[in-house]
Inverse folding.
């Protein structure tokens, strides 16, 4: 990467920063770090089954006409970073590269491929790499809490965004010395803006805390509090996502042409940078419990009873019309002239059986075949699901009777499918007599819990493979609980949005307030909500109904 890792503009910024440090009473000025030093600090304590996600700035494949945005690129082995990282830098020189500071789970992100497959694809086709899910659920450990200071914009209308990155970092660290929050482990000049990063650890070890639901909740509370305490330094509330992209050190920001520089604060190396536990950060920020929104709103005025009453009134209106024959709950059959046609879409109703086939294939791939003890049940269930799905696509009957020709063809195709599965995946394969016995059994509607028991699906398999039809009862209960949480969360967001609109807040203030309360919304969503309230005559009222 060359001897000099700082461009001319940032050399001047660092020189000014060193002078400010001497005036401020610091013992040691900031020390620039190489990319390998940063990765040694982040990857040195990661679990063996973790990976580091790398991204690049390029057009999204589905929308090639849009401006380039940070997107997934390849994966990095933490243990092999000294061998793999130099090659990645050499190939993608003078480009904007990104990484996720939180290590990701190998089992959730590889999707049947190896790390070498992703790296070779990224080099051969950098604009069309293999996809991996860049989602919060793929995070394995919590390595850092990062605050993105959106400064360095001299033409911005907001005063706090017009300061330079060096000035923002200096002000932030001066506040840390005065006790506003703990001193960051690292600071960084990201080309135009700046980063502040607090590296995490377990209370009794140097490892990272696991990304469990409780730990992520504490992580989010700490991040929200740090955003509030750095709001006048243009901290970006939209960069609070768990799986978020940050610029790699020693790379070029293509927007400004500046090199991305990471710094240590008050220490001479990244290995000596301070690390914090979640509990310690919570106590230092006086976060003894999850923050509670104090502006308690009235309960929803649109109750279920009111909705049922409106439905009863609508039914009574239709019944009062002479000769009206509308049927409630089902679509009435309409006679057509000429050749009769089916009244439903082709293949309608096959979705659950297709999903069951996909889940069975996931189980087979995850288990590297069909083990003994589940061979007959697996092939029998696959035959039933496949034949039912194919029949719904081949059926041409309109009177509800069984289409014998379509049934026979669907069974033949399903039989050929399980013959192939038997020869490829069963160890040892079943003989033809056993296969025919599985096909001749009566088609029944097998409950999901019964199928899970027959196939010996564990709770871990159901969660890791994200099965949709063969769901373990414990995973189903957890999903229902999470769905209920999401509904309550959406309800709270709508109530808070209505209150802010009635208070006459601007779109920018409403979006920032909702983001600080951990709710995501765009200005377009605020405008849609305001227009709905205007149509109903609810602007400026105390009505707390949902829209």
């Amino acid at each position: 990467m060359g001897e000099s890792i700082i461009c001319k503009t940032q050399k001047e910024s660092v020189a000014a920063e060193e002078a400010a440090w001497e005036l401020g009473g610091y013992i040691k000025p900031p020390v620039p770090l190489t990319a390998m030093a940063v990765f040694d600090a982040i990857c040195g304590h990661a679990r063996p089954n973790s990976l580091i996600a790398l991204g690049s700035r390029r057009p999204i494949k589905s929308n090639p006409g849009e401006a380039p945005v940070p997107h997934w690129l390849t994966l990095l082995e933490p243990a092999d970073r000294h061998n793999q990282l130099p090659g990645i830098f050499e190939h993608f020189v003078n480009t904007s590269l990104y990484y996720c500071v939180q290590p990701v789970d190998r089992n959730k992100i590889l999707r049947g491929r190896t790390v070498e497959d992703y790296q070779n694809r990224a080099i051969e086709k950098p604009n069309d790499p293999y996809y991996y899910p860049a989602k919060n659920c793929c995070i394995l450990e919590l390595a850092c809490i990062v605050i993105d200071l959106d400064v360095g914009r001299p033409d911005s209308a907001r005063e706090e965004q017009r300061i330079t990155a060096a000035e923002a970092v200096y002000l932030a660290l001066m506040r840390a010395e005065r006790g506003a929050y703990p001193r960051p482990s690292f600071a960084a000049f990201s080309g135009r803006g700046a980063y502040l990063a607090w590296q995490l650890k377990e209370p009794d070890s140097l490892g990272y805390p696991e990304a469990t639901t409780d730990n992520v909740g504490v992580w989010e509370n700490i991040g929200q509090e740090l955003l509030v305490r750095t709001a006048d330094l243009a901290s970006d509330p939209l960069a609070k996502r768990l799986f978020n992209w940050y610029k790699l050190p020693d790379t070029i920001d293509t927007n400004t042409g500046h090199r991305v520089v990471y710094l240590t604060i008050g220490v001479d190396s990244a290995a000596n940078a301070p690390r914090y536990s979640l509990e310690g950060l919570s106590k230092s920020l006086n976060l003894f419990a999850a923050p509670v929104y104090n502006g308690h709103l009235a309960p929803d005025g649109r109750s279920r009873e009111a909705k049922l009453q409106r439905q009863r009134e609508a039914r009574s209106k239709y019944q009062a019309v002479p000769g009206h024959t509308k049927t409630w709950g089902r679509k009435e059959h309409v006679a057509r002239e000429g050749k009769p046609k089916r009244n439903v879409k082709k293949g309608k109703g096959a979705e659950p059986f297709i999903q069951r086939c996909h889940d069975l294939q996931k189980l087979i791939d995850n288990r590297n075949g069909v083990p003994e003890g589940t061979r007959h049940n697996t092939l029998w269930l696959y035959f039933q699901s496949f034949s039912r799905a194919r029949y719904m696509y081949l059926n041409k009957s309109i009177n509800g009777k069984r289409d014998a020709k379509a049934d026979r063809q669907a069974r033949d195709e399903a039989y050929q499918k399980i013959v192939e599965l038997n020869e490829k995946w069963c160890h040892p394969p079943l003989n033809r007599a056993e296969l025919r016995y599985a096909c001749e059994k009566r088609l029944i509607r097998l409950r999901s819990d019964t199928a899970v028991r027959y196939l010996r699906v564990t709770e871990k398999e159901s969660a890791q493979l994200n099965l949709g039809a063969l769901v373990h009862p414990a995973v189903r209960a957890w999903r229902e609980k999470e769905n209920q949480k999401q509904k309550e969360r959406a309800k709270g967001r709508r109530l808070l949005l209505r209150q802010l609109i009635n208070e006459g807040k601007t779109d920018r203030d409403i979006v920032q307030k909702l983001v600080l309360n951990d709710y995501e919304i765009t200005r377009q969503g605020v405008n849609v909500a305001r227009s709905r309230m205007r149509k109903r005559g609810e602007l400026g009222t105390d009505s707390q109904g949902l829209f």
In short: Residues 405 and 415 are 16 Å apart (CA to CA).
